[in-house]
Amino acid sequence: MLIQFWKRRKKQCVSIVCSISILFSAIFFLNGCEATFLEEKKSSKDVENERFTSFTEKLFCKEVAASQISLHYTLKEPEAYGIDKADTAYGTIQTDSTQIKTAAENIQQALYAFSYEKLNVKNKITYDLLKQYLRSLREEADYLYYEEPLNTVNGVQTQIPIVLSEYQFYDRTDVEVYLDVLSETRDYFQQIIAFEREKADKGLFLSDEMADQVLEQCNAFLAMGNGNYLYSTFVSRIGELQELSEKEKSDYIQQNARQMEEQVCPAYEDLIQAVKELKGKGTNEKGLCYFPEGRKYYEWYIQQSVGVTDTIQELEQLTRRQISEDITGMEEAVNEAKQAAAILEDRKAERILEKLKKGIGTAFPEIPKTSLQIKYVPEEMQEHLSPAFYMIPAIDYTEENVIYVNQIQMRDDLALFTTLAHEGYPGHLYQTIFFESTNPDPIRSILNFGGYVEGWATYAEMCSYYLMPLSKTQAAILQKNSSVILALYALADMGIHYEGWSRMDTVEFYARYGIKDAETVDKIYNLILGSPGNYLKYYIGYIKFLELKKEWIKSGNQSQKEFHKAVLSVGPAPFEIVGKYFSL
After folding, report:
1. What is the mean predicted confidence (pLDDT) over 71-89?
2. Cα gap 307→540, rounded to integer Å
3. What's the whole-model pTM score?
4. Taking 70 as the threshold, does the pLDDT of residue 20 lie above it?
5. CA gap 437, 241 in Å, rounded
6. 1 pLDDT above the threshold of 90
7. Which residues touch 553 (CB under 8 Å, ≥6 apart)?
8. Quick one: 516 exposed, middle or buried, by C-beta within 10 A (0-12, 13-18, 19+)?
9. Is the pLDDT confidence value at 458 over 80?
10. Could you give the CA distance from residue 367 to residue 400 in angstroms, rounded to a whole number?
11. Contact 429, 2 (CB under 8 A)
């Protein structure tokens, strides 16, 4: 799992804000610069590429400056891009679909004014991505109230604390700006609450069970009290600033405590009260397809978030074919292989990652040196956060990287090893550092293509089985078993949200594959209800990388390292665009 802001990239805290803020920012940008970018003057290829780069940089600057969180997580030194300060702390939720569509069309007009044929390959990729992304945003405007900022897997209520705790202090100004961000927390939560009330009025509010999960997550945050990690991490971060006197540090620590007491905790209390009031107004206890436009929205969402053009039926067929391929001849040795992989010589995460880093050297291209810190999810939040997640660094400071590990969900050595491969090498961290080393257009960092990034990390995870102290046969069996399990989640996701499976339908589906514990399946059902389409980003994304690899080999290329370099060089994008450029 990847944490990116505001999506910038983990998205996660405000999925609805990140999807539309670029449009409102662009209205201002276009009004002020229209003459420059809509000119019809013919120019050389060099001039056209310079104009295009200038266009995307201005668009990037307006977008990242929309919120302080987005700005700080994307750029360590925003002044280098001419950015003085952000417009808001967390961003603003807008729901005027007409205005959103108009803004997208205005940006498209500016984009279409460039001569595509004169652009170099790097800029052509960016052009294609912007074209696709703007089309997606226009379409998304019809489904704004189907978005769920309180989703139970990576909603605002679980992501904001992590994002605040990892807000880096490089100097005194960062501390003061951070405290200003905290001061706007309650107002931001009021925007979320207002949006949820509008959803309730339209019959699109959370089901009672999902509302209860949100309440549980909020209460878990408040239950930490004075032991909340937003106190301790603030003290740790501020303690590293040499420019501050002990008196100044003490004053800032008191200010942080005051903002926690007056803003952050009351924001969660407000949210709890609002969810309690709205609970019971949800009209649907099942998948998205039971909402008026739910089935149509789900298919659109999958195509956009995964980066595919396949219909749901085609994705179901693709998944079943891969399951059949993985299951063939695998069952007998699964238990034997699991026992063989049960013990690692060293369970220390840092050493496992170092082993992975060395192990991938023959099949993956080298990346620049970078530092990595392993942190652990606070005990109080372990039940409410993912098994692990990688915090994407600022694009102008990729030297420092952080991976969080949720120890309660590391059930065995195999899970720990493969999870660290997913988040670290050759997964999210590796992919991020490699792509940033290619000096991509900054606008690329704020375009979210979850199918690529999670698909790559899943592909990396599958590769890691062959780096464990196992025979090739044992590694293959365990890898295929993992692939099948993830495929079942993907099929259940499509079954619940597109086909309309009930809980009993889901129980019967899993029973056909030998999973007969009703309580386990009930948890899976709730997990999928809480975050529609999430598992398809991982599984279908992974399968699409396998298809690209088959295409690569079929064309006569045998080098795995060159294949990995090719797809990583294109960077996060819909798979149609990756396929267009990766073999050039």
Report:
1. 95
2. 9
3. 0.91
4. no
5. 29
6. no
7. none
8. exposed
9. yes
10. 14
11. no
